[in-house]
Amino acid sequence: TNNNAPTNYVYTAIAISKNNLSDILYFAASSTSNGAPKLYKLENARSSTTAAINLSTALSGAGTATGSYISSIAVNPDNSNEIMVVVSNYAVPSIFYSSDGGNKFVNIEGNLANDSWGGTVGPSVRSAGILPDPSGTVYLVGTSTGLYSTTNVNTTFPIWRIEGDQIIGNVIVDYISLRKVDKYVAIGTHGRGIFTGTYTGVTAVNNENQLPVSYMLSQNYPNPFNPSTTINFALPQSGNVQLTLFDALGRKVKDIVNQDFSAGNHSVNFNAASLSSGVYFYRIQANNFVRTKKMILLR
Fold first, then answer.
1. 16: exposed, middle or buried (C-beta count within 10 Å: 0-12, 13-18, 19+)?
2. Where in the chain is the domain with CATH 2.60.40.1930?
3. What per-residue confidence (pLDDT) applies to 203?
């Protein structure tokens, strides 16, 4: 079957299903002249003599932007109808999800939102992966600020949590490879090589229904931000939490939070409307845990 890319388009991503209607080929074409990205689906790819189904209208209806390109397609290895499509560039909606083989898409970028018209600056999303598990399917995305995961895409605002920020760091994650049989995860980064690990269940990817096993302070998102940003932290036990903001010279600016919290995963929204642009540091103190991270207010 001839499935040449349209004029002024080049193919930029491809993925194939493995089970539950195998041999379904999803592929994407991106414009070289500021057009909207296109997505296609070819059923019975090994032997088909018919043209691919054009899923572009369904995808654009979920909010893809002109001038962006599809950099990654992920297919659930147990369900050929469940796919994620990553649309890359800065200041564009970036993560789209379908549970019905591309007939309908929804935007699931949640707290990684990245849109110019909404005033939010999030990371550029580069790659995606879906890993089924008896404890719950985990969805992974590689971004310009690290690896993120969620176990719930069936919500109006998915919460993506950074993975391995103390090991991987906030580096560009260009590629994700998953192996279902042993839950092996490998990521390729820009400048820091390859990281590997084994997925051990929902608790390993910050399931909000399970108590954390250790303290954690995540990088704020978005970052840079204007004027609001979200700070996530995890507490294995209840206690007083102090989130303190300092300027670039180490001078205390204000207390963001100073109150008691129960054990669990928590999010705090910080509005910096009264502050000047610049580099700031936020520090958490909870029991004996102390951690500091940098944030940038950019007006």
1. middle
2. 216-297
3. 34
Neighbours of 168 (CB within 10 A): 18
- Is the pLDDT higher at 67 or at 29? 29
The answer to whether the CB of 164 falls within 8 A of the CB of 171 is: no
Query: What's the whole-number average pLDDT of the chain?
Result: 86
Q: CA-CA distance, 170 to 297, in Å (whole number)?
A: 18
Q: What fold does the segment set 216-297 form as a domain? A: Immunoglobulin-like (2.60.40)
What's the rounded Cα separation, in Å, for the pair 25 and 42?
A: 5
pLDDT digits (tens, 9 = 90+) for 134-191: 878 999 999 998 999 999 998 777 888 888 877 888 889 999 999 999 999 999 998 8
Rounded Cα–Cα distance for residues 87 and 72 (Å) = 7
Question: Where in the chain are all domains bearing CATH 2.130.10.10?
Answer: 9-205
Q: What is the pLDDT of residues 76-130, one digit of tens each?
A: 999 999 999 999 877 788 999 999 999 999 989 887 875 443 444 578 899 999 9
The two three-digit tokens of residue 72, written as one number: 């990654």
Global pTM value: 0.67
- Give the whole-angstrom CA distance, residue 97 versus residue 104: 8
Alpha-carbon distance of 33 to 69, in angstroms, equals 11
- Topology at the third CATH level for domain 9-205: Methylamine Dehydrogenase; Chain H (2.130.10)
